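Let us work through a complete example step by step.
Step 1: write down the sequence.
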Amino acid sequence: MKIIPRSGWISHGVSLPDVESVADHSYSTCVLSLLIADLENERGARVNVERVLRLAVFHDMAESLTFDISRAYLEYLGRRGGRIKAELERSASKHLIQNIKERRLSRLYLQLQAEFEANRTLESRIVHAADALDILLQVIEYRRRGYPETLLQELWTQTTERLGDVRIPSVTTIHRLIVKEAKNLKRRAK
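Step 2: predict the structure and record it as tokens.
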């Protein structure tokens, strides 16, 4: 995962040498997930932090076999593109997990995969939100490196819309801070 580039950035015009790896993204998603879980627990929510971290660590594990398949590339397949990607990643995850000889662990990892895909528990929703927040932070990083705003605006808008449905107070707070930083960056660039 350390050498697998996040292909979505390539399809948005970021040069290959500048593209983050899947491991870079996964680590950032783990840190954001931990922060959100801890903040939510401080607020009085009941979040299983260990479960959040397990979900975050495994959330893109399939990409170690499938590579990162950008949504932009899936558009050529029409409506079935998303289903094909989900099926491919589910199959790759199962392949990885089935090679674990300890049955209790393989069952646990299969459960984690199903929980993440379903996106119904607070823990899985936190990881999905952290995944999106990391994309926004990476957009800001690419803007700092000189990539034009117009190149990344569509991804920013789509990701922000995804976060609009998240009803987790800490996610909303972090999202506001990220948006504020993006506005400050834009002002400094003028």
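Step 3: interpret the result. The chain has one domain: 7-189.
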